[in-house]
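Translate sequence into structure tokens.
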Amino acid sequence: MSYIDDLFSVKGKVALVTGAATGIGRMAATGLVQGGARVLIASRKGDACEAVAAELNALGADGSAEGFAGDVSTEEGIDALVAEVNNRTDKLHILLNNAGVSWGAKLEEFPYAAWAKVLNVNVTGLFHLTRELLPLIEKVGSVDDPARIINLGSVMGTQPMADGAYSYTASKAAVHHLTRTLASEFGERHINVNAFAPGPFQSRMTAFATASEEQAADVGSRNPMGRIGRPDDIAGATLYLCSRAGSYVTGAILPIDGGESVHHGLRLFSE
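Result follows.
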């Protein structure tokens, strides 16, 4: 194995990626499988996760994938997901908390229920799943090779922009702060905790603005780098933070946004 291959390898590691049937979760899972990891893929749509796992296994990569249903929107769902993970493995090197939901509406019409729905998944579910999986995560971490947790934040949690997604942007700011808090607490347990803060990517959540190539190009034209994110942007960042290359990085909110977070006054999806 070459120096570069060894530096960014996740071979032999076991990972759980939530919400990985589509979008950024699938991009991250693809990178981990290509890097040699055994990747557990979970979302509310178990059939979709099984299909994605089959597609990833057909790549002929060094890693493998397993898909099954998992719901982080309720305490009961989290308990069931944790039980399923424990049935499949006795250790977890990587947890990627990607599952999330959004809600968009005009300020005057934004519903009360949209806050509980979004916060329950994006923040509460993330926290409780992480806590319940700690026994599997903590047992594999060491000074030289910590276990890794990556939480999915957003450029909307960094910049004061909402585009009508008020509960979403607040939830992602909370994810960023929780990430730093857990990084501080988990250091002595040999667990690194970081977050991604992506800009616009093609996904089910952003389909309203990026579904077609024309729409994606229009959104990308307002990005400082002139495009939206690509799957390799997520895969590369995932391999960096989860491999030996990222072993000394914790508490970071990694912008994967083409410069959105430093381009003040920019709007993601509207003029």
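Note: DSSP finds nine helices and seven strands in the chain.
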